[in-house]
Amino acid sequence: MKYTVVIRQPVEPEQLPQLETLLRERIGLRPDQATKLASRRSGRLLKPTGRERAEALRAVFEEVGAQVSLEEVPDESGQTAQAVFSAGGGGIVSDPAALWGFRPSRPWVLPSRRLPVIPLRGSERLTPPA
Fold this sequence. Notes:
The chain is α+β, with helices and mostly antiparallel strands. 29% of the residues lie in helices and 14% in strands. The chain has a four-stranded antiparallel β-sheet with strand order 2-1-3-4, covered by helices on one side.
């Protein structure tokens, strides 16, 4: 299973130097990487990774007061992402849409494929390719 860390709002500016230091020392980032990561405003903080690394990053951000959560990422089998730890509760959220306050008006279904439009002349009948 892969995990990522999602930040809900930016880290306070006065906390950035401490966060950058912690990212360099505990996560092993280069100074430029730590600066870039610390300045993220919202969204995923890293690509899908192992749980141990994701939890270490979450702990560092929580230490400076950031609102972050650890989330499962869809794996190759196409499973849906599921939030596992929220910043305050530490409980399991069964519906990520509820966590983000977002519900699509209709299901996201893509058409399997579109058939070409072929003009007909006279009484010709064509059947679409199989």
